[in-house]
Write a structure and sequence with these properties.
This protein is α/β, with parallel strands linked by helices. The chain contains eight helices and nine strands.
Length: 282
């Protein structure tokens, strides 16, 4: 075959690829959510600074920052100072695990107390009355900067999936995670070995993967809410190292994320990045 023929074929391939990506980008820029979406973060005790997000289509979703800082001002986030984490006493686990609330005892460790307050909004989102009208929750840690197209990409994901997590950037099992965690001072008084052994004794195979909980999204439904209620209990009963308990709770609930994003949550071109030089108190 002639050289001209190959050039024509290559030209057609290039045209098809260009056409596909043009339409993909156009369709995503016009994408509409099938339900109401809330993006949530929480900052207690100046653990993080609320980031200014340079993002497209920010009005397609509602933004909530739960914080004890009454001086925070931001042009995207709705700043909420109501302490919902102190008002959730309407469920059985509060009574059953009340003594485990030492995890959020301010007198024992103010830094851990503030971290656990923020974690409540991460996990028990569905218990907060102003959020119960939403169909989807997207959690974003206070340390994260979002890429410009984050909203449209997450709307597409929420439209098509029930539970969305990022794959862990370095490890793929909770054994490796707890072995690293025991070297970190904030976990010194937490028996992570016992937590791991308890999970193994219940039949947990530790081969379902590990997830970064820096960003995740979930549909607001009974199944997911039950999983997240159990996850909160494990944060109280065992340790607040939520990356250890999350895979076990998923396995015990016979559930898995139906979308696992394989990009590094701390540095990728589509969703997010973290400027570690700007992070404080981590």
């Amino acid at each position: 075959m002639s050289k001209l023929f190959y050039l024509v074929i290559l030209g057609l391939i290039f045209f098809c690829i260009s056409f596909y990506f043009y339409n993909y980008k156009s369709n995503n820029s016009n994408i509409k959510s099938k339900g109401k979406i809330a993006i949530i973060t929480s900052i207690y005790g100046n653990y993080d600074n609320l980031k200014e997000q340079k993002i497209k289509n920010k009005d397609k979703v509602d933004w909530y920052c739960f914080t004890d800082n009454t001086n925070i001002k931001n042009n995207i986030w709705n700043i909420i100072n109501i302490p919902y984490h102190l008002q959730d006493k309407d469920n059985d686990e509060f009574v059953k695990y009340k003594y485990h609330y030492s995890n959020i005892d301010k007198s024992k460790n103010p830094k851990i107390y503030n971290m656990m307050c923020a974690k409540y909004y991460k996990i028990k989102t569905h218990k907060i009355d102003i959020l119960q009208k939403y169909d989807y929750f997207i959690w974003v840690d206070g340390s994260v900067f979002l890429r410009p197209d984050f909203i449209d990409k997450m709307i597409y994901n929420c439209n098509n999936y029930n539970l969305i997590n990022f794959k862990h950037s370095e490890r793929d099992n909770i054994k490796d995670e707890y072995e690293l965690s025991i070297t970190i001072p904030k976990y010194n008084d937490k028996d992570l070995y016992n937590q791991y052994q308890t999970y193994l004794s219940k039949g947990f195979p530790d081969n379902i993967g590990l997830f970064e909980n820096t960003i995740f999204a979930r549909k607001n439904n009974n199944h997911n809410n039950h999983i997240f209620d159990k996850w909160w209990v494990h944060n109280l009963e065992y340790s607040f190292q939520d990356q250890i308990s999350y895979p076990f709770v998923l396995w015990e609930s016979k559930s898995m994320p139906d979308l696992i994003i394989k990009e590094n949550v701390f540095n990728n071109h589509n969703y997010s990045y973290v400027n570690f030089e700007l992070m404080e108190n981590h």
